[in-house]
Amino acid sequence: MQQAKITVSGVSRSSEGTTRLETVNAGTFTEKNGYCYARYEETEASGMEGTTTTVKWNSSTVALIRHGSYEMRQEFAEGTSCAGDYRTPYLMIPIETKTKKVRVKKLPYGWKLQLDYDLAYAATDVNRIATTIVVDLR
Question: What average pLDDT does this structure show over 96-107?
């Protein structure tokens, strides 16, 4: 395993407006069986303290996996839908991810992942989300 700085930035657009966020996390990076993995601990600032987030990817797919206080698995592949549950300490919310775009780019210092997708909560409210994840191995 290698130390990594993992920056997650995103824009979420819904009927209630636009929200922007960015987190910078110290974590680890490894490659195994044709996949890359970046892992970090969520902080109080993210609102998910006590949760470990793992990003798993290859050249065309990305999975976002959370374990701990919050549990969730989202899979992203262009043109596909993925149903699942988002489990918080308080309730469980059914979600569906409809992926529009996945871009995976190897950089001289690490990786850049770009995801554009629609996220439906409980089959009613739909958010259009653009997320960029940069894994810096310097």
Answer: 97
Question: Looking up tokens 């960015």, which residue turns up?
Answer: 22
Q: 78-111: b or e for each residue (b if 16 or more CB lie within 10 Å)?
A: eeeebeeebeeeeeeeebbbebeebebeeeeebb
CATH number of 2-136, picked from 3.30.450.20, 3.40.50.300, 3.30.70.1130, 2.40.128.20:
2.40.128.20
Each domain of the chain, given as residue ranges in start order, spans 2-136
For tokens 């993992």, the residue is 6
The residue that leads in pLDDT, 41 or 15, is: 41
Per-residue pLDDT band at 123 (split at 50, 70, 90):
low
Give the contacts of 122 (CB within 8 A, at least 6 positions apart): 93, 94, 95
Whether the Cβ atoms of residue 65 and residue 43 lie closer than 8 Å to each other? no
Rounded to whole angstroms, how far apart are CA atoms 119 and 82? 10
Identify which of 4, 50, 5, 1 has the alpha carbon closest to the alpha carbon of residue 23: 5
Which tops the pLDDT comparison, 25 or 124? Answer: 25
Residue 122 has pLDDT above 80, yes or no: no
